[in-house]
Amino acid sequence: MDKIEINYFADELNKYLLDRYNYKKDVVYVSLSNNINANRKKFDIYLRWKPDSNYFEKNTLVIARLHFFEIRKGNGTSLLQFFINHSKKYHYEKIMIECANDNSAAFAKKYNFSEYKNDSNFIISTDELESSLKF
What we know:
The protein has helices spanning 2-21, 75-90, 102-110, 126-133; strands spanning 28-30, 35-40, 43-49, 60-68, 94-97, 114-116, 118-125.
């Protein structure tokens, strides 16, 4: 189920990114190790799909890399909203930002993510994030 689930999620993420950034060709690719990569001029997104590791909490979508060419334009917030809108359908309960730089850490704190195991990782439940995004 997990391979099917990740591919369906990647398809929906691809549609979202194509619509938002007006690209014509697919931008999202799934690796053999259950990672999702989307990289174009306007963004660079690398996700870990529910990693099976003692380090990560179960059913967590991990944002390993997130960069937008244009910042402070609502791109990150819109992507978080996309994640929330699909969390129940794809059964992830938490979202984590891994190895955050200063900008990502400020972004995480803005939406009430909590520090996770050290000061460069942040995590939040999808329910808490949904509440944070309503304000």
